[in-house]
Write a structure and sequence with these properties.
alpha/beta, Rossmann fold, four-stranded parallel sheet, homodimer, DNA-binding, 2 domains
DNA sequence: CTGTTAGCGCCTTCAC
DNA sequence: GTGAAGGCGCTAACAG
């Protein structure tokens, strides 16, 4: 294709500013400014004149100048672990939609499951002037909260509820979710379990979901066997590899619990490749109830976590705080087991 | 949970600014500023002193002030059709990662398949000071380009290549992709086809992909039968519904081409529910080669579109332009047919 | 209801 | 190599 030489912006044609608008409308810049921010306090006739001028000049306010002067950017930041696999996409989408309807823009960044990166990108977002922040999960570098404190920046943690009460949070009980799922499998007659999870470090969802499995097993006098805990980065391939490891065990599990649907589907693939039938030879469960899992054959038993509601509630929470309204410090939303064909009693 | 009353920011503890840094370091604000922007021009010893002060005060530059003064925000905007179904997630992810490594932040918005909304959110992004923009697709409101022109804002279109040469673009040939897929199916012996696509209005991908199907059929002396074109919003449910409609036709298709994997998987679900075997009773194909399709049973035949490469290249394109470097006006990237179990010759 | 005025925090000429 | 000073575009006091 053709290469373009690039004499960057030789003629910086000036955008019209408020002064231009004011001049054209025959008012002061203060009045023009009020037409934008406090239209109710203007004489309807002057308001019309200013608006006409704005339209004529195709004036668009200068956000940076506004932010500098008013200390309000109408930008809200969010940091998600990753954009991949759509795990966080629905929360992000709901967050963006809700903020948009309140007139706020969402500035998004990823931390790639690394808490240092999280601090770094948060600093960037604060530098860019975001007024509030949303994070995924409860595990964060202490430095993050110092930074947020210095900026006096309201924030909310999501996808979990902070038991300590130190941080505002909106989420669900990850531990209870897998506890319920594990109990269900025990009820079906399973006694030997495999667990596939992401590394715990900096990932409270993985840790709490794994703890839920262990707790439920313990409550029934069971425990995870030797070699039955597999960890890896969240991907289909890692899920498959973990399942292959589990299948090679002497006393292999009859049920495998994955801490998310991606691992679970990866595990399903490995079972298919090994010629095992699901659920007769192996029960498999996920968490998050994604389309990826729901559309498998058989459908993946999973847990519907309220991730859309979390996004919406987070937006509401932050906007309420920014506008000086009362708000809920933390919200615990319900989850729900979704039973599909990937689970059954173990073969005799 | 507990409700919090919210006396918004009674004590606005002032963040340290450059003057504070300069004072502590015993230099002028100009020198402190240079320590940030032109460290090479400073005496190494003064540079150290200023940096020490920055560290001590935990100084973070004020982005809005910087932007206002320098006309550079180091923010780049992107508008995607939707966050759902992860169709655009990998492009977005690649874009964000590449921009991040160049020191730019990504500001993201969704247009929900509506070109008026696209203009609206773009205006917001420009107002917030983004220096460049990326869009998905070739179809846009003319007003969008007027706006970008007024702001002298570099932009690039993605997921397609603009044949007219009017706009910089990075993408692939959507028409050729489905042309190749359709030819493959004709080669397998199929003669009656169904087509499931998104509405064409404002969606060039849907239109071009559909055109590719028609063109390939025409090249073989075939055509889409009556009632064999089904359109709907992109969702699994719409794909299923479209397939049910196709199945109810008198002379029903033996192969169904969907313009994306989401529709295709929806169609697979409908076939399963109707008791049809894939591929014996029905061949189905998608586009985009998502995990959703790849993990179905049987795996979905699809087209690997270079969407990650597109995100990376778009980031590179925009950064090159912003930094005054030469750049490619447009880039055509290759696609690739991925044959899996969802396609076969029709049953006799 | 409207105008005047004084910066918000920073960068960037222009001197030295 | 460094300092002094002006102003980017806008809003919030304060007058009137």
């Amino acid at each position: 294709m053709r290469a373009i030489r690039n004499p960057r912006r030789p003629t910086q044609r000036a955008r019209p500013n408020l002064k231009d608008v004011a001049q054209l409308a025959g008012v002061s810049t203060a009045t023009a400014s009020r037409a934008l921010n406090l239209p109710a306090r203007l004489d309807p006739e002057t308001l019309t004149r200013v608006r006409e001028a704005i339209r004529k000049l195709r004036y668009v306010p200068h956000g940076a100048a506004r932010t500098l002067r008013s200390q309000r950017s109408r930008m809200i930041g969010a940091v998600v672990p990753s954009f991949d696999y759509a795990l966080y996409a629905r929360t992000t989408s709901a967050l963006q939609a809700a903020l948009d309807s309140e007139g706020y823009a969402l500035v998004l960044a990823a931390q790639h499951y690394d808490l240092d990166t999280e601090v770094r990108v948060t600093r960037q977002l604060l530098e860019h002037g975001v007024e509030a922040m949303a994070f995924v999960g409860l595990d964060h570098d202490p430095e993050l909260f110092v930074l947020l404190g210095e900026f006096d920046c309201p924030y909310v943690l999501t996808w979990g509820v902070d038991g300590s009460g130190a941080h505002p949070s909106i989420g669900f009980d990850n531990r209870a979710a897998t506890y319920a799922m594990t109990s269900h499998l025990v009820g079906l007659g399973h006694r030997r379990f495999g667990l596939i999870t992401a590394p715990f470090d900096g990932n409270d969802r993985a840790r709490d979901r794994s703890a839920g499995v262990r707790a439920a097993l313990a409550a029934h006098g069971l425990a995870l066997g030797e070699g039955c805990l597999r960890q890896g980065p969240i991907s289909l391939a890692a899920g498959s590899e973990a399942m292959r490891d589990l299948l090679s065990l002497d006393d292999r599990p009859t049920a495998v619990i994955a801490t998310n649907d991606v691992f679970a589907v990866g595990a399903m693939i490995a079972c298919r490749e090994a010629g095992l039938r699901i659920p007769e030879d192996m029960s498999i469960t996920g968490v998050d109830n994604t389309d990826l899992g729901a559309t498998q054959t058989p459908g993946l038993t999973s847990i519907r976590t309220p991730i859309i509601e979390v996004g919406r509630a987070a937006a509401h929470h932050l906007v309420q705080r920014l506008e000086g309204q009362a708000f809920e410090f933390s919200q615990l939303l319900p989850f729900e087991l979704v039973l599909r064909g990937s689970t059954s009693p173990p073969s005799p």
